[in-house]
């Protein structure tokens, strides 16, 4: 048995939610040996749960067995989840746990990630706007250095995001958020 469940996710930054699809596809001996159907598990013989995590901590599990059983065709659209709940900066990840009720075997997809930095970017923009209104040359110089540090590290977050470096992303995001918190009193 070569079965391997696969997910695709699509983050909506306006609605702050995620659309989840199963893209495992149907079994074919040469083109998709990891797909649904004999000799691999049949969709109707499995239970399935989506597992959502934020910063490596589980936030919810959703049973999608009914959707999986009713599916026809290559892909299964599980729908939209975490509606309005993806507000905070960090790493959101989704995986599916499939249990074959015939063999008792458990299968897990690889995690799919959403890296968010909108809050840090918004604060950096506010800091730059406030900096433009400061006339004290000494204070302005210190605050400008803080803006440059924050902006540079936000760019570093983007690089880590592109490389899917979750732990490093979370560590750097923690530093950036602490630096923002310390500087809020100076800027706002």
3D architecture notes:
With 188 residues, the protein is of the alpha+beta class. It folds into two domains: 7-115, Immunoglobulin-like; 117-187, no CATH class. Helix content is 37%, strand content 28%. It has four helices and eight strands; from the N terminus they run E-E-E-E-H-E-E-E-E-H-H-H. The strands form two sheets. Strands 3, 4, 6, 7 and 8 form a five-stranded antiparallel beta sheet that branches. A three-stranded antiparallel beta sheet has the order 1-2-5, with no helix packed on it. Helix 2 (118-132) runs parallel beside helix 4 (166-187) and helix 3 runs antiparallel to helix 4. It is elongated, with a radius of gyration of 22 Å. The model has no long low-confidence stretch (mean pLDDT 92).
Strand content: 25-35%
Tally of structural domains: 2
What portion of residues is helical?
25-40%
Rg result: 22 Å
Which class of secondary structure composition applies to the elements? alpha+beta
Order of helices and strands: EEEEHEEEEHHH
Label the CATH architecture of the largest domain.
Sandwich
How many angstroms does the end-to-end distance come to? 59 Å
CATH topology of the largest domain: the name is Immunoglobulin-like
Number of strands: 8
Q: Uncertain segments of ≥5 residues (pLDDT<50)?
A: none
**Number of DSSP helices?**
4
* Largest beta-sheet characterization: 5 strands, antiparallel
The average pLDDT score comes to: 92
Which oligomerization state do the chains in this entry correspond to?
A: single chain
Shape: elongated
CATH class of the largest domain: Mainly Beta
């Amino acid at each position: 048995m070569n079965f391997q469940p696969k997910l695709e996710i699509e983050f909506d930054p306006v609605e702050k939610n995620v659309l989840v699809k199963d893209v495992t596809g149907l079994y074919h001996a040469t083109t998709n040996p990891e797909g649904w159907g004999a000799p691999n598990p049949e969709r109707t013989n499995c239970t399935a749960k989506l597992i959502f995590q934020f910063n490596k901590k589980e936030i919810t599990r959703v049973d999608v067995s009914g959707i999986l059983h009713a599916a026809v065709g290559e892909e299964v659209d599980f729908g939209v989840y975490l509606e309005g709940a993806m507000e905070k900066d960090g790493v959101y990840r989704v995986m599916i746990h499939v249990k074959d009720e015939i063999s008792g075997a458990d299968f897990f997809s690889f995690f799919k990630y959403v890296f968010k930095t909108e809050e840090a970017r918004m604060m950096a923009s506010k800091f730059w706007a406030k900096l433009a209104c400061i006339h004290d040359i000494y204070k302005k110089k210190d605050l400008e250095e803080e803006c440059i540090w924050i902006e540079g590290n936000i760019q570093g977050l983007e690089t880590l995001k592109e490389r899917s470096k979750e732990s490093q992303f979370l560590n750097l995001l923690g530093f950036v958020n602490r630096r923002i918190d310390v500087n809020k009193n100076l800027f706002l």
